[in-house]
Amino acid sequence: EDQVTQSPEALRLQEGESSSLNCSYTVSGLRGLFWYRQDPGKGPEFLFTLYSAGEEKEKERLKATLTKKESFLHITAPKPEDSATYLCAGSNSGYALNFGKGTSLLVTP
Amino acid sequence: EAQVTQNPRYLITVTGKKLTVTCSQNMNHEYMSWYRQDPGLGLRQIYYSMNVEVTDKGDVPEGYKVSRKEKRNFPLILESPSPNQTSLYFCASSDGSHAGAYEQYFGPGTRLTVT
C-alpha cells in the first residue's frame, strides 16, 4: 500500500533556528513528490515538485531535497510568517496524490 | 487572477438533504479533483477528473457523486448527506504540463457540517 509519512507531527522553533522536516514514502513507481504549505482554514499552497533522487529545489528560506526513500524540507533561519502546516504528497500516476498528515510548524519571535 | 473557486464556503445542513458544492477554475486545466480533510486523517481524495466526461474514484468515494460536463466546472454532489461527511472539502486543478506528475492548485475550501 502506498504510504507517505511525515515527521515530526509538530515542531516549534525560535526565529532564526534552522531545522528540517521529513517525509518518507513507500509509493511504488513514484513519479513526483510534492510539498505544500497550508495555513489554518485555507487550501494547500503548492511549494515544490521533485521528480528524481538527488534533485533539490529552493524558494526563499525553504529548500526541498529528495532521496530514493525520503524527502526533506529544510527551513533556514525561519521567521514567524513561516508558521504553517507543511504537507508532503507522493504520486505514482500523476493524477492521484497520497498525502501525509503534515507537520505543524510554529516559529516564535 | 488564476484561481480555483468553491461555493459555498460554509454550509450547515441536515441528514438526507441533497446538496451540491460547486468548483470552478479559470486556468483551462484539464484535471480536477475533490479532497476531504479530517483531523488526524489528513487529505484524502474523493474523485478526480482527467477531462470533460472522464471521472474516476479516489480513496473515499462512498456517498459522493461528481460530474464534469464543462472543462471549468467540477461539482461535488452529496445526494443523502450523513454526519460522517462533516468535513473540510477542497477542490483542486492541474494543467498536466509536467510529464508524469502534476502539481495541483487548491481552492479555499468548503466547511460542511451535517447534523
Poorly predicted tracts of residues of chain B: none
Average pLDDT reading of chain B: 92
Dominant shape of chain A: globular
End-to-end separation of chain A in angstroms reads 41 Å
Beta-strand content of chain A:
over 45%
Q: How many strand elements of chain A?
A: 11
Proportion of helical residues of chain B: under 10%
Low-pLDDT stretches of chain A: none
- Count of alpha/pi helices of chain A: 0
Terminal CA distance of chain B reads 36 Å
**Major sheet of chain A, described briefly?**
6 strands, mixed
Count of beta strands of chain B? 11
Largest sheet of chain B: 7 strands, mixed
Q: Structural class of the helix and strand makeup of chain A?
A: mainly beta
Structure annotation, total helices of chain B: 0
What value does the Rg of chain A take, in angstroms? 13 Å
Describe the structure.
- Chain A has strands spanning 4-7, 10-14, 19-25, 32-38, 45-50, 56-59, 62-66, 70-75, 84-91, 98-99, 103-108.
- Chain A is 0% helix and 55% strand.
- In chain A, strands 2, 4, 5, 9, 10 and 11 form a six-stranded mixed β-sheet that branches.
- With 109 residues, chain A is mainly beta.
- Chain B is an all-beta fold.
- Chain B contains no helices and eleven strands.
- Chain B has strands at 4-7, 10-13, 19-25, 31-38, 42-51, 54-57, 65-66, 76-78, 87-94, 105-106, 110-114.
- In chain B, strands 2, 4, 5, 6, 9, 10 and 11 form a seven-stranded mixed β-sheet that branches. In chain B, strands 1-3-8-7 form a four-stranded antiparallel β-sheet, with no helix packed on it.
- In chain B, a hairpin with a 2-residue loop joins strand 5 (42-51) and strand 6.
- The relative contact order of chain B is 0.33.
- The chains are: A mainly beta (109), B mainly beta (115).
- The A-B interface holds A 31-32, 34, 36, 41-46, 49, 51, 87, 89, 91, 94-97, 99-102 and B 4, 31, 33, 40-45, 48, 50, 56, 58-59, 90, 92, 96, 98, 100-109.
